[in-house]
Amino acid sequence: MIALIIGIVVSLVITMIGTPTLIRVVHKLHYGQYIRQDGPQSHQVKRGTPTLGGVVIVLAVLLGWGASALYRYCTQHIVPSWSAVLTLFAMASMGLLGFIDDFAKVRKKQNEGLTVKGKFIGQFILATIYAVLALMLPTKSGFPSAQAGMSFIETPFLSFDFAGRFLAIVLFVIWVNFLMAAWTNAVNLTDGLDGLCAGSSMVAFAGYGIIAFWESYHLRGSGHPGFTYAVSDPFDLTIIACCAAVACLGFLWYNCNPASIFMGDTGSLALGGLFAAMSIATHTEFLAIILGGLFVIETLSDIIQVGYFKMTHKRVFKMAPIHHHFELCGWTEGKVVVRFWMVELLFVIIGLMIFYADWVVRSGL
Predict the structure, then answer these.
(1) pTM for this predicted structure
(2) pLDDT single digits (tens) 64-94
(3) What is the DSSP string of 59-90?
(4) Which of these, 323, 320, 319, 353, lies nearest to 336 by C-alpha position?
(5) Are 259 and 47 in contact, with CB atoms under 8 Å apart?
(6) Where are the domains of the chain?
(7) Beta partners for 149?
(8) Quick one: which residues bind Mg(2+) (predicted)?
(9) Which of 64, 65, 154, 208 meets the CB 3.0–4.6 Å disulfide criterion with 10?
(10) Is residue 185 a known part of a binding site?
């Protein structure tokens, strides 16, 4: 538990101290956000607000986990697990892709950075590296960092092994690419109002912290009664999820309305990549749909709007993603954000209830 506390404290301190430092640096470099012209006109006043805040979030998670890992090694001789390293790789690599996109925007002085093709190629390469390593690298626990299949909770309801080892790896690579693309874009779409993405992500990762901790307490071979989980090093995943939650909390201090800094694609892609990796590492890829319910709603609203407009040239919402719809309905930005936080909290509570109910049923209690 001391290791967990160290990670939480370090991550929070890094964001609380690092964010205002980054704000000053970005101001000096004149790296301000460029606002989309087709968005709500009330957002044009945010033009020039410092961006690249996701850099601090990524560093806070990495340094928080690093401090925790150092403590565990020095006191208990516990070597960092591959599961943790790969999960952090997913976050940092997607964050790097977002940083390149953000940097291109500020250099071009417009709201368009990398091309869609460029982003797709980058995500494909990084997600493929993560997928292959997650299946191939041995872990100290003996359980793989990922399962070649699709899981709701723990046990795959569709295993790719039916196709043979090679094709199972290929199918898993495709599956991971889908998850990475889906969650990075979902979190990115949610990053449209001051504090919305940071607050919602904080709640989502707090939920994953609870799930990973429960799995670590009921790890297969631990001797604890009830259903046990064949998950690789879930306590490491607990630390990462909690570090991410408090990093978002610290960043939210400066990102709440009116925002002093935006996380940019650096932050939203990193958090989306981390959320996808957490779902894979904890074997809860489909439960993640509930845990990240707000992100799903944001994405579906955009898909519905675009699809319906192409078919009928009419709009379902006043503007998509759906948080803009409520803004144009007369809700203040603050009201939209807080109520959406509440929606995400409800999704996480429902997800945790389902997770616990599944454990109770499987335990025969």
Answers:
(1) 0.93
(2) 999 999 999 999 888 888 899 999 999 999 9
(3) HHHHHHHHHHHHHHHHHH-PPPPHHHHHHHHH
(4) 323
(5) no
(6) 1-287
(7) 159
(8) 188, 265
(9) 64
(10) no
